[in-house]
Design goal:
The protein contains 6 helices and 28 strands. With 440 residues, it is mainly β. The chain has a single domain, classed as Methylamine Dehydrogenase, Chain H (7 Propeller), CATH 2.130.10. The longest helix is centred in the first third of the chain and has 15 residues. It starts with a helix and ends in an 18-residue tail after the last helix.
């Protein structure tokens, strides 16, 4: 295992050569408790970090038309500003897919958007500005995972020392706080959270605290003490009981978690940002889990910093985005123990998130990780790019230049579809959808 000092030197070298790095939405990897969009998506919702001198400078939810039959295909159709910059990062739908909860990693607000009433024009309907107070000190709401009637949120930090100790937090769908679950001392760092209902198992991964992620990366990489403040564990939980039952050693900051979707597959993948490895997290015959390195990402001597992964709906392809070289690598993971690289393509000067459609035919990429960690100068590209994937190659469909459009730094993506919401019937005063037909 690389020492913290050697790792800091390696990352500083990468920084001098190429700029700065990034971290992490994905239709195929969202909550199993939530309905999915089948067929052609009409919109991609992009959670975007504000930039000084660009548009209004505020974080915003941007809606882009993605239906090839639309006259607005590949164009921005709306944006909803939240006022100010909060380090917009990740979010997620409620279990009925009616509302989209989006978080800010800096001062920890949660913005709730209604996407069901008018899918082309999401509307901000609620702001939860007391997340840290509610939770007893959790800072940095990161992953938003839909449970039945609830939202499970992973934190990145705390308000006591702004370090990596953190917790999971639950709210109900009305935005009312339920409980805080602090991570155990031996695995105190948090990042992603994903539940596999059929196994009654939940996995959490680990990153770093506010002190690091809100600091310029050059300063973090050159500070040996800061470089020690990255997680290297994953936790296996009893999902129903919300109890940690096993801690796995996964050194190097394991980020995104992607459970296999096929019923016969009892495993998940993650990648480590600092060591550029793909890990298989697999259930053993006795019910416990084992973490194993199964592949390298790029050249370990020049860490490409893998930051987001996406597993296709058939569990065959694993997309791995790396920030430093702006490249996506696609592995055939039909044999999860022996991933085979089948395609490699540079998407931009920097690259962060990847999101696939359920039919596996379209893939979307965004460029930004964190405002203080993105590259600078000519390499500070800010884009959403759409591609067609045929199992062999990625073919460009369209690009939206977020800086040119005055929108900021695009990060997390979610899909919308008009027909999906026309099919829904919601109770209460806001009920909508088709009335019951009377049989004659």
């Amino acid at each position: 295992m690389m020492s913290a000092a050697r790792l800091g030197v390696a990352l500083a070298l990468v920084l001098n050569l190429a700029g700065v790095w990034a971290v992490r939405a994905d239709e195929t990897c969202m909550s199993a408790y939530m309905p999915k969009i089948t067929g052609q998506e009409d919109y991609v919702y992009v959670w975007t970090v504000g930039m000084d001198g660009v548009g209004d400078g505020s974080d915003k939810l941007v809606t882009i038309d993605t239906n090839p039959k639309s006259p607005h295909y590949g164009k921005v159709v709306s944006s909803a500003s939240v006022g100010g910059r909060h380090e917009a990062h990740h979010g997620g739908f409620t279990d009925d897919r009616r509302y989209l909860w989006m978080g800010g990693l800096d001062d920890s607000p949660i913005f709730v958007f209604d996407v069901a009433t008018d899918p082309a024009n999401p509307k901000l309907v609620k702001t939860i500005d007391h997340f840290t107070k509610d939770s007893g000190g959790v800072v940095g709401p990161h992953t938003f995972f839909a449970l039945p009637g609830r939202m499970l949120i992973s934190g990145l930090s705390n308000d006591k020392d702004k370090g990596g100790r953190t917790a999971l937090v639950e709210y109900n769908n009305n935005g009312e706080f339920i409980q805080t679950l602090w991570l155990p001392d031996e695995a105190k760092y948090g990042y992603d959270v994903r539940v596999q209902p059929r196994l009654n198992r939940m996995l959490t991964s680990s990153f770093t605290g506010w002190n690091n992620y809100m600091t310029e990366f050059a300063k973090v990489a050159s500070n040996p003490e800061a470089m020690k403040q990255f997680g290297g564990t994953m936790i296996v939980w009893d999902a129903h009981a919300r109890k940690p039952i096993q801690v796995l050693d996964v050194p190097g900051a394991p980020l995104e978690i992607r459970w296999a979707l096929q019923p016969r597959h009892n495993y998940a993948f993650t990648s480590t940002a600092l060591t550029a490895k793909i890990w298989l997290i697999e259930q053993q015959p006795d019910g416990t889990f084992k973490a194993t390195v199964v592949a390298d990402v790029g050249d370990p001597k020049q860490p490409p910093l893998p930051v987001d992964i996406s597993l296709s709906a058939d569990d065959r392809y694993l997309f791995v985005d790396s920030f430093m070289d702006g490249t996506t690598r696609i592995f055939d993971v039909s044999d999860p123990h022996k991933p085979a690289l089948v395609h490699e393509q540079k998407i931009g000067s920097q690259l962060n998130m990847v999101s696939q459609t359920w039919d596996g035919e379209r893939v979307y990429f965004t460029s930004s990780l964190l405002a203080n960690w993105d590259k600078t100068g000519k390499d500070n590209e800010q884009f959403l790019k759409a591609y067609h994937w045929d199992g062999k190659a990625l073919t460009p469909l369209f690009t939206v230049d977020f800086a040119k459009e005055g929108l900021g730094r695009p990060h997390h993506m979610h899909f919308g579809q008009t027909q999906f919401y026309k099919n829904q019937i919601y109770g209460g005063a806001g009920a909508r959808g088709p009335a019951l037909a009377r049989a004659e």
